[in-house]
Design a protein that fits this description.
Elements (H helix, E strand, L loop, with lengths): L37 H26 L4 H6 L1 H15 L2 H12 L6 H9 L2 H9 L4 H14 L3 H9 L2 H9 L4 H14 L3 H9 L2 H7 L12 H17 L3 H9 L2 H7 L6 H14 L3 H9 L2 H8 L5 H14 L3 H9 L2 H12 L1 H10 L1 H7 L47 H21 L6 H15 L9 H8 L3 H23 L8 H13 L3 H9 L3 H6 L6 H14 L3 H9 L2 H8 L5 H14 L3 H9 L2 H7 L6 H16 L5 H7 L3 H7 L6 H14 L3 H9 L2 H8 L8 H11 L3 H9 L3 H6 L6 H14 L3 H9 L2 H8 L5 H31 L20
């Protein structure tokens, strides 16, 4: 059953004709971007906008195919036809009365939408809007506002040229007309084509004009507040697209929208925060929002009792908290504490399941207080082994949970959760068996039985007589009954679950994303740890929503760098769960899982658990993942694992069939991040002589030498480290010299970056052990650069540069001795005598 919480999608994007009342939640979700590359983030968002627009257009085409025969046979059709007839031929008074009648026809229903379109009512309404009669204009706008809740009506209004008419009414002298016109525009702009047309016609600037009011007057002037609310909802719909956000920025609307955050009307604050949430998907908007101090107002809205406003504020802060300034503001102004409190409330079923499974860990982690503690979960355990039970009474002979012979009546809060779980399971079973036969009678049949078990209906529909009785009920009565049951269930569930149905993870997802972004700074990890959020994150590793799980793992990956947090994760079974998640297929989830395991592998105990449970092999398998980011993250995690001096680790690497070959083959990748991670992993594997020999056989020397000419500062330190690790013998150094890797490495010394200089000096020192490489170094101008390195503050750089110069000088001395010996043996004036230019080197083989 759907939550009572209102949809958080922009206006008009939550409706579909498939449900009973023609509405559903939108599937629009902007992708969570990766934090380290803003360019990739913009590309992902643009691609998602394009895909979303294509989906909407396909969806619109399907919505045009309506069942006209059903509409014409219904009584609503004839009633609407009669009203539209009066609209066409009547005077102003008759038109006003007909508009009032149309408002009472239930235009939110699909059958009424079809009827209004078939009889030409939309054309008449748009013609009325072109008149100067104020009452008729208001009535027509009110009817259109109700009718445009359906996607078909929105498309029809747009095709009939209603967009231009509505834009003209936005500048009307009457406040009520302006507000209603903006509200209808907000719904019509749910269509991508209508939204693009409005932006192209500079309609965003007209809507922004309506926001130029004093925020303090909105608390007293209801009409003005309604007009501003309609304008902000229209801007919310336009800000979904990148072009709409750009138009809003050009018109100066961001500052005006931000100024409305001081208003106290929740209905107005919802679209205001919605606009900000959509805008800060881009980096330029995030910086402007933070610089203007709007994030402080968003932090205050976390305390708002309105669930919809709370979720939107949390989502906006989650997007904006990738900035260090916003993250610091959350910690400084108490926003992080509010987020952790929300996390504790939303994750209570999973936390209770963890307490039930491992009380000792829960007590050590602070989840279970001596003599009290958290109440046990009323929901069945969500742990993998199925530990846990449904609270709230025992099952009777008929299998109805929680009925203890209390008699008829509404269920109490004590046994409500168990009954809802049973009804949910019953509905899932029916859906699997008869998914293709769902209609309103089937829905009524299921709800009637559910109502019996929940205490709303007198008895289950079990016999054939009862089924026939239910089937004979009219559709109107069925809809009324379903709505009544939905309201009653929601009213009873709201006090017990904090206003949220079990399984509604929208707020939880936003809270976790915000905590994840705050934890990106090491100094904030301590604040998260002090608020005891880590054990709750461990419990949420068993959440069934993949989006929630992705944010949980992302947050754990950041806090696992702390030794205490990593120990908590290990003791709570989090490392085992993370290893199991490596078998998933979602790229975003795998990216965070590999990062989290890489952070855990820095601790010896966690690394032992990872190796024991075959985690290294699973990480290695993701080097074949088609996503370059997952490949790079897996290689980084492998590198962290190999960094530890664990006995038998080199043998484990060799035991992975085809593992080294796969790693070397990634040196041909086009991704710089993959190349950097693979080079770092090769530097660790090359410590073992046998593994180095295997990599050399697979052509690692040639591949590394080809990469040396790349001018990429992010790749150079890892590449130089890999070359230095491979040059453990003169033979390997000679191979690098023959492959042409020496001369490009000399250019690395020209940078001021110490992270590049250090591995480069080490690599050149080992390469200089081969005489031919010393000649190349001298000819490439390495001597002056190495002399400069002698003055470095880094002792490793000093020592490596000095050793490299020593090897070059020793070769020069050997040449001088060889020349002296040759001069004494060769007769004076002989044609075989050769004079070597002063200062040059030659190799006598």
């Amino acid at each position: 059953m759907a939550s009572r919480r209102p949809s958080l999608a922009p206006p008009g994007r939550e409706s579909l004709p498939s449900s009973t009342d023609g509405r559903r939640r939108s599937s629009l979700r902007l992708s969570h971007s990766q934090l380290e590359n803003s360019d990739d983030e913009q590309q992902v968002e643009e691609a998602e906008d394009e895909e979303e627009d294509e989906d909407e257009e396909d969806e619109d085409e399907e919505l045009y195919q309506l069942d006209f025969q059903t509409a014409e046979l219904s009584s609503e059709y004839w009633q609407i036809q009669k009203m539209v007839k009066y609209l066409k031929v009547g005077n102003a008074t008759c038109t006003t009365i007909a508009l009032v009648g149309l408002k009472d026809c239930g235009l939110h229903q699909e059958v009424c939408q079809v009827a209004l379109k078939v009889v030409g009512g939309l054309e008449v309404l748009l013609n009325i809007l072109r008149t100067s009669n104020l009452r008729c204009n208001v009535g027509a706008l009110q009817v259109l506002e109700a009718a445009c809740g359906h996607m078909t009506s929105r498309a029809a209004v747009y095709k009939l040229g209603g967009l231009q008419v509505l834009q003209g009414l936005v500048g009307h002298s009457q406040v009520e007309v302006r507000g209603l016109a903006a509200s209808v525009l907000a719904q019509v702009c749910a269509l991508s084509t209508a939204r693009a047309a409005l932006i192209r016609d500079d309609g965003v600037a007209k809507l922004v004009t309506l926001l130029r009011v004093d925020a303090n007057t909105l608390n007293t002037d209801h009409g003005l507040a309604t007009a501003v609310e309609g304008a902000t909802r229209a801007l919310w719909a336009c800000s979904v697209s990148k072009s709409g956000r750009a138009a809003l920025l050009r018109a100066g609307g961001l500052e005006l929208v931000g100024g409305l955050l001081s208003a106290s009307r929740p209905s107005l604050l919802v679209p205001v925060v919605g606009v900000i949430h959509q805008c800060i998907a881009e980096v330029v908007f995030r910086e402007r929002v933070e610089a203007a101090g709007y994030t402080s107002s968003l932090v205050k809205l976390l305390h708002c009792p309105s669930p919809q406003l709370q979720v939107l504020a949390t989502k906006a802060l989650a997007r904006c908290s990738v900035l260090e300034a916003t993250s610091a503001r959350l910690v400084r102004e108490g926003g992080l504490e509010v987020l952790v409190n929300l996390l504790t409330r939303e994750a209570q079923p999973y936390t209770a399941a963890l307490i039930e499974k491992d009380p000792a860990f829960a007590r050590d982690a602070g989840l279970l207080v001596e003599g009290g503690g958290m109440p046990r979960s009323r929901k069945q355990s969500m742990m993998p082994d199925g530990v846990g039970s449904v609270a709230g009474g025992t099952s009777d002979a008929d299998g109805v949970p929680g009925q203890d012979g209390e008699g008829e009546g509404h269920p109490t809060g004590h046994d409500l959760t168990g009954k809802l779980a049973f009804v949910e399971g019953m509905g899932a079973g029916v859906g699997r068996k008869r998914r293709h036969t769902w209609n309103w009678k089937t829905i009524l049949f299921g709800v009637w039985n559910a109502g019996c078990y929940l205490g709303f209906s007198p008895r289950p529909v079990a016999s054939r007589h009862h089924r026939q009785e239910v089937a004979g009920i009219s559709k109107c009565m069925a809809e009324s009954f379903i709505s009544r049951v939905a309201v009653l269930i929601s009213d009873l569930v709201a006090p017990a679950t904090g206003g949220q149905l079990v399984g509604d993870s929208e707020l939880l997802e936003a809270v976790l994303e915000a905590i994840w972004h705050v934890s990106l700074l090491p100094e904030h990890v301590t604040a998260v740890k002090d608020l005891n959020a880590v054990p709750i994150l461990v419990a949420l590793l068993h959440h069934d929503d993949e989006r929630v799980l992705t944010n949980v793992v992302g947050a754990l990956g950041e806090v696992a760098g702390d030794a205490d947090c990593c120990l908590t994760l290990l003791n709570g079974g989090g490392v085992t769960t993370l290893i199991q998640l490596l078998r998933r297929t979602s790229d975003r989830l795998l990216l965070n899982v590999t990062r989290a395991l890489g952070s855990c592998a820095a601790e010896e105990d966690a690394l032992a658990a990872l190796l024991q449970q075959d985690g290294l092999r699973l990480l290695w398998s993701h080097l074949k993942n088609p996503n370059c980011r997952v490949q790079a993250s897996a290689a980084n995690a492998i590198c962290t694992c190999l960094q530890q001096e664990s006995e038998g680790l080199a043998e484990v690497v060799r035991s992975l069939v085809g593992g080294i070959e796969l790693l070397v083959s990634l040196l041909e990748s086009q991704s710089e991040s993959v190349l950097s991670a693979v080079c770092a992993a090769i530097a660790r594997i090359a410590r073992d002589p046998q593994n180095l020999a295997i990599m050399t056989d697979y052509g690692a020397v040639t591949s590394l030498s080809r990469l040396a000419v790349r001018e990429n500062d992010s790749l150079r330190p890892y590449l130089a480290e890999a070359i230095a690790a491979c040059c453990v013998s003169r033979e390997t150094g000679l191979l690098f010299g023959q492959a042409g890797a020496v001369a490009p490495l000399v250019q690395y010394l020209e940078t001021d970056d110490s992270t590049i200089r250090r591995p480069t000096c080490r690599a050149l020192h080992r390469l200089s052990l081969e005489p031919e490489n010393c000649v190349t170094l001298h000819q490439s101008g390495a001597v002056p650069l190495l002399l400069e390195m002698l003055g470095s503050e880094d002792e490793v750089v000093q020592e490596a540069a000095a050793d490299c110069l020593r090897n070059i000088r020793l070769l020069a001395l050997q040449r001088c001795k060889a020349q002296s010996r040759s001069a004494r043996i060769t007769p004076r004036g002989s044609l075989s005598a050769r004079v070597t230019p002063r200062g040059s080197l030659s190799v006598r083989r």
